[in-house]
Design a protein that fits this description.
mainly alpha; rod-shaped; 15 helices; 361 residues
């Protein structure tokens, strides 16, 4: 059992490694480049739309772990009756009938009984499960691949559901643009898991149990693979949930905005400022045109001038200004130069436009 488990893990690593290793290296390099050339982006709370993706992955993880429980797995008559693979058919089903209600075999037991009489059929039972052996209309022991082709849709069905969950959790409709960048990786991982199970199932020696003498030494491949599949789904869901959480909170995998996005953001800010300036101009125009508002404005500025003049004439203020000038903390020439540059920055573009209009005329 341990050797089979190690072989399965080795096969998974060789299959998924070439798919995931380049992407992980690329993300690591982009992360280092971002930290080296970009200002650190502050950590933020997880956006609300990421919770929908995490909920989908959580449900998928719970269902995957539930699928590993023996309660939801098909019955294994060899485990149920503690029988060896060489146990005669009559003895095997006599033991099974003692475990059934009223000591009576079910219709499925009766359908399975003639199909599990040979040793090869029992090996296929442990390899592909009871449903394939019972219901396959064209499977023959002389053609082992016929069992695999019949079992293939059953093998792929849970992977398709898992792919749907991963795709939905990383879709732009659910996780927006920030989460959808994981979509390709999620699809590749889901396809890799499906291909790995198909490869392991198809390449495994289905006669491995033929010479097993003791019941406890039997390799129940079909039931073991159900557990490995559920654990693999759960691990994949947890990994991508961690990626979404780390990227959504700016802890890892932060992608800085592109030049186009930064320009678009700057244009939106400028457009908003332009709108505020236009609104301010309208308000100023209304104030100037209205006699009452204009008088109130003039009175305000007259009072403001008087108040500021009184403040500047106070002894403490005069002494503070004199001390700042004498100590060199304030340079009059520097203040004048800054005021000149500020005025030129405001008036300069207007003068340039007037000059251009004069030249055109």
């Amino acid at each position: 059992m341990v050797q089979n488990t190690l072989s399965t893990m080795k096969t998974l690593l060789f299959t998924l490694g070439p798919l995931l290793l380049p992407r992980l290296l690329g993300y690591y390099r982009s992360l280092r480049a971002t930290k080296a050339h970009q200002k650190p982006i502050p950590i933020r709370p997880l956006p609300s739309y990421f919770y929908r993706s995490l909920n989908i992955l959580f449900i998928s993880t719970v269902l995957a772990l539930l699928s590993t429980l023996p309660t939801f797995a098909p019955e294994n008559i060899f485990t149920l009756t503690s029988s060896r693979i060489q146990t005669p058919t009559d003895v095997l089903f006599t033991r099974l009938s003692l475990l059934r209600p009223n000591n009576t075999l079910t219709s499925l037991d009766e359908a399975l009984r003639p199909r599990i009489a040979s040793l090869d059929a029992r090996c296929f039972y442990l390899q592909y499960g009871p449903s394939v052996l019972t219901h396959c209309p064209f499977c023959l022991s002389d053609e082992p691949w016929s069992y695999f082709w019949y079992a293939l849709p059953t093998i792929l069905y849970p992977h398709i559901l898992h792919l749907f969950a991963l795709g939905l959790a990383t879709s732009s409709a659910i996780a927006k643009k920030e989460g959808s960048r994981w979509r390709n990786s999620a699809v590749l991982l889901g396809v890799g898991l499906a291909m790995s199970e198909c490869y392991i199932t198809g390449s495994r020696n289905w006669k491995g149990n033929a010479r097993t003498v003791r019941a406890e030494d039997l390799q129940h491949f079909f039931w073991d693979m159900r557990v490995w599949r559920g654990v693999g789904f759960a691990v994949a869901d947890v990994v991508f949930a961690g990626f979404l959480w780390a990227g959504g909170t700016n802890r890892l995998f932060v992608v800085p905005p592109t030049v186009g996005e930064r320009m678009e953001g700057a244009l939106r800010v400028l457009e908003a400022a332009r709108g505020r300036m236009a609104a301010l101009g309208i308000v100023r125009n209304v104030v100037v045109r209205d006699e009452g508002l204009r008088r109130r404005g003039e009175a305000y500025w007259e009072k403001e001038g008087t108040v500021m003049a009184e403040v500047l004439e106070e002894r403490e203020v005069v002494e503070g200004i004199r001390g700042a000038l004498e100590s060199g903390r304030i340079s009059v020439s520097q203040v004048e130069e800054e005021a000149k540059r500020y005025a030129e920055g405001i008036v300069g573009p207007t003068n340039l436009m007037q000059q251009q209009q004069a030249q055109q005329q």
